[in-house]
Amino acid sequence: MPKLLTSLAILYFLVLVKSHGKTKILRNNYAISIHDMVKLIDYEHQLLDILQNFTNALQQRVDAIEYYLYTTDYEAEKKLPDDPIKSFRIIRRLHSDYLNWKWLMEQQPWEPLVKHIIAIAPHMPTLKDIEEAFNGLRLIQWTYSLPTAQMAEGVLQNIHHNTSLDAMQCLTIARHLVKLKEFIRAKEWLMVGLQMHEADEDNEVFYSQLGMPLSDFYELFAEIHDELGTRYLAMSELRLAIKNWPERVSLQRALSRLKVNIRIGKEPAKAKEKSEGVYNKCCSTECRPSAKLHCLYNTTASYFLRLAPLKMELLSLDPYMVLFHDVVSDKDITSIRNLAKGGLVRAVTVTKDGSYEEDPARTTKGTWLVENSKLIQRLSQLAQDMTNLDIRDADPFQVLNYGIGGYYGTHFDFLADTEMGNFSNRIATAVFYLSDVPQGGATIFPKLGLSVFPKKGSALLWYNLDHKGDGDNRTAHSACPTIVGSRWVMTKWINEREQLFRRPCLTTL
Prior knowledge:
The structure is a single chain. The relative contact order is 0.10. It contains 16 helices and 19 strands. It starts with a helix and ends in a 14-residue tail after the last strand. Strands 3-4-5-16-12-19-10-9-6 form a nine-stranded antiparallel beta sheet, with helices on one face. The model is unreliable at 1-26 (pLDDT under 50). It is elongated and about 115 Å long. By secondary structure, it is α+β, with helices and mostly antiparallel strands. It folds into three domains: 1-124, no CATH class; 146-275, Serine Threonine Protein Phosphatase 5, Tetratricopeptide repeat (Alpha Horseshoe); 278-495, Jelly Rolls (Sandwich), CATH 2.60.120. The chain has helices at 5-19, 37-71, 84-106, 111-120, 127-144, 148-152, 167-179, 183-199, 204-209, 214-228, 231-244, 249-264, 278-284, 330-341, 374-387, 417-420, and strands at 155-156, 159-160, 295-298, 310-317, 320-325, 345-346, 348-350, 356-358, 364-369, 397-402, 408-411, 426-433, 439-440, 443-445, 450-452, 459-463, 477-479, 482-484, 488-495.
């Protein structure tokens, strides 16, 4: 393996040179939907197959050369030949063999392989994908208070998963945290990565060829400690790094900056305070504001429910909120997800000027189910039976799939007065859970101290408007970051326009 590292680096360099300016990178937003990660798995297997073929071709050459050195009795041939046989062997080899070896060394067996890599280059993740994946990990760590060392080892909420990060990935996370000026957390990730790198010191050539030599770790170490105010520690480590890597100009520049900051007495960066409250608590454990509520069979919302009642759990009476259990079958869930998979696009928000833009507080992809199929009709009837509301003016079903650390920031479903226009306000929201989520992914109502963890086949219903028809601020809600699993939900927004005789507005109760 080690003797092929330089050749692999040459292949990587050739790909960069040949693909530069010839490929158009697509905006795939891989980190925004776990479903789309399937594509990356396929692409990575293609790349690994190409690299394996490349190493096989190089290994054949290495084996041929080593065998040639063995047949020539390389060490012994340095002696002056003392018989005609040896003399002839040398003359023949230098007359014929050197031309063949010259030809072999001039051949480039990687050319067709490079073309294969260039073909999939437009589908590779971009810097934006890296940043969004990092943001997902950062949000998971903050929300669930995960220790850095455990998270790097794949231990999430005391559950060990069959995965871990390596030194290069820890360095990447530390660099992004430095950009956000979160230096204390950046220091934690860097030290974990540095320990991993030093434990693997025999493969320093490997890290250097992939663009992350040990000197990069020490350079970032000095930058972080410079910002934190521990500058003399940074100074000693930088000088040691410069002694080991005198050719690194960036280390000299870092030392110059450090000396200036020591001389002028630059103030250290202030640590960002971490606020823990209801949000963090109820994202980690399921919260219920009252123990007096109970479960029942709903048989009154429609005539059909007399024959097939719904299992209903009361969560709150004011505002009204219930959780229905086992309302969507596995068969229907599979059909819904299959309908949605081909149309998933990044969720956007509407700005004040009517344009659409990406919302960093909404890391999910979604699509609308507007097909007039029997499945959709049956689901619409189910929504009406569950809510006892008229759904003729309701929005279509929206299916969402969340990404790495996928979440939805705290928001209201009802429309503000300035947003209304000719629209009818959303009187109620129904969220159908189309998958189990092993860790994370709860729907949380911070002002109510209430959270519901996804359970496949269940549905959460709440009223967004109070009895006067005004928006109820207590219904502010969020989707907690998904830690493990693929969070699929389907939302139905029911509007108030058709509810005159179902739930009329009242000035008083």
